[in-house]
Design a protein that fits this description.
Layout: H1 3-24, E1 41-43, E2 66-71, E3 75-84, E4 87-97, H2 104-107, H3 112-131, E5 136-141, H4 143-147, H5 151-162, E6 166-168, H6 171-182, E7 192-198, E8 203-209, E9 217-220, H7 224-232, E10 244-247, E11 249-256, H8 260-267, H9 274-285, H10 289-295
Parallel strand pairs: 2-5, 5-6
Antiparallel strand pairs: 1-11, 2-3, 3-4, 7-8, 8-11, 9-10
Helix pairs in contact: 1-6, 3-5
Amino acid sequence: MSADSRSRTSTARARSGAETVADTGAGNGAENGTENGTEERVGSGGIDAAATLKQKPGRGIRGRVFGALDLGTNNCRLLVAKPARQGYRVVDSFSRVVRLGEGLSHSDVLSEAAMERTLRALKICSSKMQRLGVTEARCVATAACRRAVNYPAFRDRVEAEFGLKLEVISSREETRLAVYGCAPLFDPDVETALVFDIGGGSTEVCWVALPGHPDGHACPGNGADAQNASAVRPGRRAPIRHGQAVHPKVLAWKSLPMGVTNLAERYGGGDISETSYRKMVADVLDPWTPLSGRMGYWGP
């Protein structure tokens, strides 16, 4: 997956976080989790991607400003949005490579250098949120913070210095947010879709049913999700026709502790030998076999 694709996926996840905040309030995620970063998960249920697909904002949230911060193993991203007439309008965003999980695969400890880089980015995020008058925020942390033994001390430092309350989310919640964030981009004419969320320290893949599938469903809408998608991706219109909002149903999902950061540390970055490349591909493909079996197909 290209850097641009990873950016769009993470931005979509941040957007879904902003909309989750709109209904749950700051810090109230659907699920908090502190599972070990090396744990593998595969399932066919337990993720309700449609549970937080929102309708048009009600009068009760007019004038409020929502912030969604996504602190990953490799990147720190912020999205700030306001309720609009049909959905939400993105008013500011921020993204910086912080490499918080650098060296984590060898020590299970966040390094001082990595934490300092991240703190500088979080300072910018905090300043933006204050300047824009954010009234409610959700600040999620993923694979690196799930794994690091010194995460609690880092979390406390972030709150003390910037007033940001980090929330470690489980791989299940991370998958749900990725699916929800991508929902406006699905073509409702196809039956199923695969959603990949490739991060720095983990990768989530989810197989979902769309309206054309016997298990899929859609609901009438006013195109709010399409407008939101266009706000995140200027000039790109989401493939939702006739005001139909797509509510994907999760058929199967899996999360593995493999991402661009730990794979680069394990096999080397830049130019690598053909032998190392083949070993990397084999190591990545093998754990997906249970999920591909549920799908009934595994391409070459």
